[in-house]
Specification:
Layout: E1 12-21, E2 24-29, E3 35-39, E4 43-48, E5 52-53, E6 71-76, H1 80-83, E7 85-93, E8 99-110, E9 113-122, E10 127-128, E11 137-139, E12 145-148, E13 168-172, E14 194-197, E15 202-207, E16 214-218, E17 225-228, E18 267-269, E19 275-280, E20 293-297, E21 302-308, E22 311-318, H2 320-323, E23 326-331, E24 337-341, E25 346-353
Antiparallel strand pairs: 1-25, 2-3, 3-4, 4-5, 6-7, 7-8, 8-9, 8-10, 11-12, 12-13, 13-14, 15-16, 16-17, 17-18, 19-20, 20-21, 21-22, 23-24, 24-25
Length: 359
């Protein structure tokens, strides 16, 4: 961790691509240039060029829309151009008032909405509460998919329980089945879906463009946001080790930051940035960002991390006041940045450099 950096200036033009979105959460670019956007209230929107927001397609699964719960990420199948399949992560209602769990469904995007919807993964157990669902969907190069999750806030100890889906990153096949080479396959004391465990609330995830390695970012409590590259079968420590403290300023667990058999983060923040999305920048529109990580912040704007030999060499912060609470930062097919602004009157903002860029 480095000292808190000052906000850097960035000579950019911020253009509203779409407005009137209620707490937008996930974004995926379609091959034809349109965008699929999720609204936490349980709607998928198709956004065409020229700020046109289409009526919500039918066929979205029911969600528990409460606090952090609702419709979360959207991802396209790697063969989307052929099969039109999309994946949604969301807080799926369970039996009883306020009971839910993170689930993933797949469906085909047709002219009349989502068709042939099928739930392929359900986090177990489903529990009462409206916080810490995760959840990003990331496709690995081998066609399997990672689903990031949270530990549902009130049930933090289950992040260490290998028979619970809480606080885990899972790896599944596109039909929801378990890849044979998952790290815990064959163990009677562990769920075979698990890729890594000991996570708090992972809301940002992306593959490194060169190595294909999964990188994630997760929310800490009062301090302790973490950047990781979760490796198979490894334990990332929550809630036994943490950089930070409880919201009431008491120690988390034993108040320790390291323990044998538990992984250290690549980087951490204290005070927190409230990280909500992660992207590797590979475009040419912002040369100084190339090869680095962009992280959207619910505290405002986004953070750029320069990597060197797998470590963070420099951190800079941008557009904290200009953008406000940002749920996701994504590189578009055009190389520009797209921000999801997270509020009741949410919007998608395209960030493009001025003719001359200053930092």
């Amino acid at each position: 961790r480095s000292p808190v950096p000052a906000t850097s200036s960035l000579a950019v033009r911020m253009t509203d691509v779409a407005t009137g979105l209620e707490f937008p959460w996930g974004l995926a670019f379609l091959p034809d240039g349109r965008m699929l956007v999720t609204e936490r209230a349980g709607r998928v929107r198709v956004v065409a060029s020229g700020s046109q927001v289409g009526e919500p397609p039918a066929g979205v699964p029911p969600v528990l829309y409460d606090d952090q719960g609702g419709l979360l990420d959207v991802a396209l199948d790697p063969q989307f151009a052929k099969n039109r399949v999309v994946y949604l992560s969301y807080s799926e209602p369970g039996e009883g008032s306020g009971v839910a769990g993170t689930s993933v469904a797949r469906a085909e995007l047709g002219a009349k909405g989502l068709q042939n919807l099928r739930v392929i993964y359900r986090q177990r157990p489903k529990l009462k509460g409206s916080a810490h669902f995760g959840s990003r969907i990331v496709f690995r190069r081998d066609g399997t998919m990672f689903v990031t999750q949270g530990e549902r806030f009130d049930y933090r100890d289950q992040a260490q329980d290998l028979m619970s889906g809480l606080g885990k990153i899972v790896r599944i096949n596109k039909d929801g089945s378990v890849p044979r080479d998952n790290p815990l396959v064959g163990r009677k004391d562990a769920l075979p879906h698990i890729w890594s465990y000991g996570h708090r609330n992972v809301q940002g995830a992306a593959l490194h463009p060169e190595t294909g390695q999964l990188w994630t970012i997760e929310h800490g409590a009062r301090g302790g946001d973490e950047l990781n590259h979760p490796e198979p079968g490894k334990n990332y420590g929550w809630p036994i080790i943490a950089y930070g403290m409880n919201y009431n300023r008491t120690p988390i667990g034993e108040g320790i930051t390291a323990k044998a058999g538990m992984e250290q983060p690549v980087y951490y923040w204290d005070p927190v940035i409230a990280p909500s999305g992660l992207t590797f920048y590979t475009g040419d529109k912002f040369p100084s960002f190339k090869g680095g990580i962009l992280i959207s912040s619910l505290r405002g704007g986004f953070v750029h991390l320069t990597l060197k030999d797998g470590r963070v060499a420099q951190e800079r912060r941008y557009l904290q006041k200009e953008a406000g609470r940002t749920r996701y930062v994504l590189q578009g097919p055009d190389g520009f940045l797209y921000l999801l602004i997270d509020n009741q009157k949410g919007r998608i903002v395209r960030v493009s450099p001025e003719l001359k860029q200053h930092e």
